[in-house]
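Dear colleagues,

For the upcoming journal club I promised to circulate an example of a predicted protein-ligand complex. I picked one with S-adenosyl-L-homocysteine because it came up in last month's discussion. The inputs are reproduced below in full, followed by the predicted structure.
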Amino acid sequence: MTSSPAKSVSDSGAGAGRTNLLGLDRDGLQGFFAGMGEKPFRAKQLLQWIYQRGVYDFDAMTDLSRGLRERLSAQARIELPRAIFDQRSVDGTRKWLLSLDGGNAIELVFIPEARRGTLCVSSQVGCALDCSFCSTAQQGFARNLTAAEIVGQVLYAVDALAAEGEGRRVTNVVFMGMGEPLLNMEQVLPAVALLTEDYGLCLSRRRVTISTSGIVPALRRLADRTQISLAVSLHAANNALRDELVPINRKYPLEQLMPACRDYAARTPHRRITWEYVMLDGVNDSDADADDLARLLGDIPSKINLIPFNPFPGARYRCSSKRRIELFSERLYRAGFTVTVRRTRGDDIDGACGQLVGRVQDRTRRQFRAERGEEVTGA
Ligand code: SAH
């Protein structure tokens, strides 16, 4: 592991009152320009400068008149989060600690693989959901991220990787960092639009994945608005256990969640729901649990992603043994499911699932090293 203070991409902080244009998708930008008495095509020009050319300085946007550039500088800004810390894991995983307005910080993790690079972004500072196996829960909820902060994470990583010149690129974005994205729909939706639209980052919708613990009404709204990939943090195949592990299940139990997921899959042809299932020793990892899971998923187009539990100080669970994970996985495979075991990445820098803590703190060394499986996160 190496650590170094990262260079700042933006030197601002003096942006108060000026709109951060990173948060505006094409519709939003058109509205912004209409308010300035400008034509809608300005939105397209701005998007191309930001997302295709990586230019954030209005003065360098040469197809805008000088007058417009000056008005833009007075009313708007294009500001990325700043990194205050930068780490590289022995396995190539990168983690940046980004500072946000209001003294908050979030972690951003990039996981390189042979043919893709997955960026794990946060949607909130902290989380309100209190899942019993997740370290973010211990931190509580601070605030929602803005669309500009969500998009800013992606641009930050794109630029930082380009500057390193090692050929690593962001090909996939997963909302699996801190927070529950479906409890921040208003900001997440324009961010998703900017990630996937032609004049934005132009990522395939298949390669952008929202991971949710199952906020059913928001999931149904998401299906109306996008066709991005969906991952659902299931972790248990019956309500009694899921109530304990993922307490939002008490509000949206499996009999509501499963039909909403089935409908989502039906709206996005040829695509499967990814079911995340954290492997907790003696809690949800028996043969009977595997059979219950197979029954629950039934004929929903599915991919099951078994996640070795990543421990953290104060955790009340242990990870299932490697053998148990194999048996669990084989049982589901024999029942006809595609199953992957997520390879734990970046655990030497606390970049693994459930270890994203949004503030600098004295980190105790992990005694545990998760079992190595076959595959890593991402759609
Ligand atoms: N709130 C969203 C996204 C954040 S969590 C959700 O619940 O899906 C991203 C994934 O990491 C989820 O599947 C979550 O259950 C899993 N996770 C959280 N803590 C973990 C831990 N300690 N070990 C392994 N996986 C964990």
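Two points we might discuss: Residues 1-13, 358-379 have pLDDT under 50 and may be disordered. The two ends are 27 Å apart (CA to CA).

See you all on Thursday,
B. R.
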